[in-house]
Amino acid sequence: MNVIKKYSGLIWLLLGPAVMYLLIAGALHNIDPDGTKDINKPIPWIIIIAIFTPISIGLMIFGYYALKGEYDHLAENSEELN
Amino acid sequence: MKPINAAGSSIWKVIAASSVGTLIEWYDFYIFGMLAKTISTQFFPEGNDVAALLSTLAIFAAGFIIRPFGALVFGRLGDLIGRKYTFLLTLVLMGSSTFLIGLVPGYKSIGVWAPLLVLLLRLIQGLALGGEYGGAATYVAEHAPANRRGYYTSWIQTTATLGLFVALGVILFVKSSMSEAAFDAEWGGWRYPFWVSILLVGVSVYIRMKMNESPLFSKLKSEGKTSTNPLKESFGHRANFKMVLLALFGAVMGQGVIWYTGQFYAQNFLETKVMIDFEQSRTILLWAIAFATPFFIFFGWLSDRIGRKWIMLTGMLLGVIFYRPIYSSFLESVAPKTYTGALPYMTGSPIIKKELSKINTDSLITTTTHFASPENYKYTVVVTDTLTASSLLKKGTPVVKNRHLPSGLFWKFVWLVFVQVFLVTMVYGPVAAFLVELFPTKIRYTSMSLPYHIGNGVFGGLVPFIGLLLTSSFPGDPLVGLWYPIGIAALSFIIGAIYLQNKIDTDVTD
Q1: Structural domain spans, chain A
Q2: pLDDT tens digits, one per residue of B365-399
Q3: ipTM of the complex, rounded to two decimals
Q4: Under an 8 A CB cutoff, do B53 and A5 touch?
């Protein structure tokens, strides 16, 4: 199981930038001054990209930790978390 | 230290005091969304760019930015000064801002101040909601014995859905007791649900004031072991931060989309794709919630026996498998080719209305035809044809509106929504106990609140936006919007299955 945990970390590490790329591409494709839907307005995209940037970085860090074997053993008690 | 084993009657007081307040906060948060159409007419009129911008901010910023921000602000406060006073503060903030939204004069009276004030109050609502849940869940869990932590915290888990239930019920009740014009007027019935909030909050604050601080937090405080910088300890310490990430990606991210799809996406789909009328689409959801709510308690209880992990992950997996068949069934059930009952026939003559187009010299001919069957299946078909200046007639596409289902189909739809809310109970019932057990007492409020509100507020809250995005990109498939919750739930299932433990932490006192 630890091998799967470790190597799937690479997937999560790559998924972070992929999500950001999709969001930015989606924004460029859909923002339209003549459009009337929410997806045509820049504000929702700015908010979503702003909030997803740290989340995507978080996913990359998660992948990095997994790749380094940090999740091979999960904390049994709070002492291990300090 | 021994696990806190609260005496029978006092634990129920703790649960009641926490749950009622949390339920009211959810109620307050939902009524804004449910009355969005009326609110936008009153505060965000069409054709005004500033109002449109403020409206977009009210919808997106409150859920996506402010909720996680509220989790950080109040989570930190809860770990510094205690759970009781923090979630008392969130309740007061939420109740006051909801009440005040009901008092803001419309755009016609005070112009741009109206949307500005509503935006400000909506942001306070989002901030308060971000701080409430973590406090209530932590407070109950820290009173509960280890072998019943899932069961006791599951009562808190019912509140989000019951808040939706109460909001739906109050709005339906007010709406049915007056004419549409009286409900939608500037100082009309749509404001009553906002005003009701102040009474509910008053009662809840009174109950919460009488409660004691969490015993675990009190002990830490008396020993001088509380955190001095909960944000740094939660997210700056690698060992704890990796658990925050695991909680987010392996559990609450999937839980958030299942939660949102089963309730809000379902209602929206029934209204905008199946075109069921306002009252029936809400009644379907009310019945489904009423039947499914006990399962929050059941799965909380079950998680004390078999662990939290696989119950939550099974809920996600079932969502991945069954969402498309369920939503397909909604559409097929009303499609004329596959509808199994007697098809409705035309009642009376079509009503034809002719008017000039507002954008050019064309004439618009709108034909409205009502249909009904002996089984009381009713709907209206509206076709708008265009007669051009050169006398060319362009046929419009027939649009079905105000569909009212016959009894058999109505209960089939209740069942299909029930199945989705049942999945919500699987993922959501055990999640409070799961999150509480993941983090130490001194930074528990902060550490569990942030992933929870990112999972629910951001991943869950994005279901309609991404749904719209996918539908616009692939208009041929009416179910394409489901790929977002299906994808996120599948990803969370895989991460959870690989990385999470199914162990129940018997000692949360550390």
Answers
A1: 2-71
A2: 999 999 998 888 999 999 999 988 788 888 888 99
A3: 0.91
A4: no
